[in-house]
UniProtKB/TrEMBL annotation:
It comes from Wenzhouxiangella sediminis. This is Alpha/beta hydrolase. It comes from the Bacteria. Keywords: Hydrolase, Signal. The keyword Transmembrane helix does not apply.
Length: 303
């Protein structure tokens, strides 16, 4: 039997549960929307701050598991024929209901480009509820032994989910951003280094490298035609093991004089490990627009 998360991983989950409580109303409304099967879309009309919103379930042949995917479309999506920038959110069961309404409010204030938002959810919190983030989002580590599934999760994205999104929605994948937090931040960093062409740009929020930082230090990055846009945001109040591991990797990377990453590191003052995603997202939108994640018309805002 696969072991459960160790102490620090439990701490991550406990902090995440606190964040979930703040958005429990959104989860209740999502549950009331009812389940859907692959190919079906259920509008979440009453959650107007998250919409126009749709959802579907996709069965991964690679991972032999279901994923629940939530989509928010730009307000002008139906009236426009253009291909929109697209944001992929790991841990979508938490981050999508948190960040989709924020993105809308940022659009109104000309702080974010209108974009198609894609939240990828496990449908439950914790391994017992089918949440395999500790495997799917991680590179190999000396321990725990359930780390190391990032390559398979990349195949799920590249061969199954991304083609479906490209087929069913008007998106410009060249202007795509993938974001992840904590272990999700480890995945976005790992993918920026190993499969840099999988997305247009990468956001790593408080990446949790505390169990396998040596792997990342020894990792030889893959080549991309242009340097890979990667933003790392780090909370000033993050726990010491996370801060120290990231410091180690950053010190090593900056000493390489490597040109494969267009790396930006931004601090999040007075923010903590699990609760800093909104602050990170706000910083990331300006950075992403500058990196080429702009709108169909090439300008921010939607009025």
């Amino acid at each position: 039997m696969r072991p459960g998360p160790l102490l620090s991983d439990r701490w991550i989950m406990n902090r995440t549960v606190c964040t979930v409580a703040l958005i429990s109303l959104a989860f209740c409304c999502l549950a009331l929307a009812g389940p859907s099967t692959d190919g079906e879309s259920t509008p979440l009309a009453r959650l107007f701050g998250m919409g126009p919103a749709e959802n579907f379930t996709i069965r991964s042949e690679t991972l032999e598991r279901d994923f629940h995917v939530y989509i928010r479309l730009p307000r002008e999506y139906a009236e426009s024929e253009c291909d929109w920038p697209v944001v992929y959110m790991l841990d979508g069961g938490i981050l999508f209901p948190m960040l989709a309404p924020l993105h809308l409010m940022m659009e109104i204030d000309d702080l974010a480009p209108p974009a198609v938002l894609v939240g990828i959810s496990y449908g439950g919190l914790g391994y017992a509820n089918g949440n395999m983030r500790s495997t799917d989002y991680t590179a190999p580590a000396p321990e725990p032994d359930y780390y190391g599934g990032a390559d398979a999760y990349q195949r799920f994205l590249s061969e199954e989910l991304i083609p479906k999104i490209n087929r069913d929605y008007r998106v410009d994948h060249d202007r795509s951003l993938v974001l992840g937090q904590s272990l999700g931040g480890q995945f976005t960093l790992y993918t920026a280094l190993t499969r840099p062409d999988l997305f247009g740009a990468y956001l790593s929020i408080n990446p949790a490298l505390h169990r396998n930082v040596e792997f990342f230090i020894e990792l030889e990055p893959a080549a991309r035609q242009d340097p890979t846009p990667l933003l790392i945001t780090r909370a000033s109040e993050d726990r010491e093991p996370f801060r120290n591991a990231l410091d180690q990797w950053l010190e090593h990377w900056r000493g390489r004089e490597a040109g494969s990453l267009a790396l930006s590191v931004q601090g999040l003052e007075d923010e903590h490990h699990a609760s800093s995603a909104p602050a990170a997202y706000r910083q990331a939108m300006a950075w992403w627009a500058a990196a080429g994640g702009d709108t169909c018309s090439g300008s921010l805002g939607s009025d």
